């Protein structure tokens, strides 16, 4: 293959790709797949010039949610990733149109393809947002602390199931995990029952807060958005965990990893 041209032995003509290869090296394998009537090629390249980009910021806590996809302890807020909700009316119209077509007809096949392509578009848009966020986190921070989310259990809530599935939290977790391995980033998973949202980040007092209460107001005078407060508590949770690990490492006389030295 050269540039954006892909040559396959069984085909006489070259195939034009939408973008050139991102890496230089020896092409080992190409897998062609068809999704929603369109063809995709996945190319495996053996390369030595891949730079995973070493993060330069110490740590961050990340609180995932539905109202906002993620809130970082730095104060950054990533908007909700609700691609299905955005396209739901159009999807329902196409599904109704499909249901009216005669079984086995060409019109039904076309209508079915339109539904499939819209599903694929929703999936691609969702994946783009998740990849952008997971890339940003693993390229920027040496230590990332996140909650141990029970996504399966959360989807059993009928009122929230669609929104949770649409957000793609399970897929986001998977992406953060494998990209962290690429870049040598430390992932700390807070205990599932750690009250990150209900604990005052300033004094540590735990409050009884319903889900509808979006602002934490503490007796000590601390007032903060619920999600930002949770993210800051998660960041502190991760830092404390690293300090404990570093102390145990020093006591055992072993050399700690660079991540364990992040105490600032």
UniProtKB/TrEMBL annotation:
Residues 42-158 form the Probable transposase IS891/IS1136/IS1341 domain. One of its GO terms (biological process) is transposition. Residues 171-234 form the Cas12f1-like TNB domain. Keywords: Coiled coil, DNA recombination, DNA-binding, Transposition. One of its GO terms (molecular function) is DNA binding. The keyword DNA-binding applies. Residues 81-108 form a coiled coil. PANTHER family: RNA-GUIDED DNA ENDONUCLEASE RV2885C-RELATED, TRANSPOSASE. In the N-terminal section; belongs to the transposase 2 family. This is Putative transposase. It comes from Allochromatium warmingii (Chromatium warmingii).
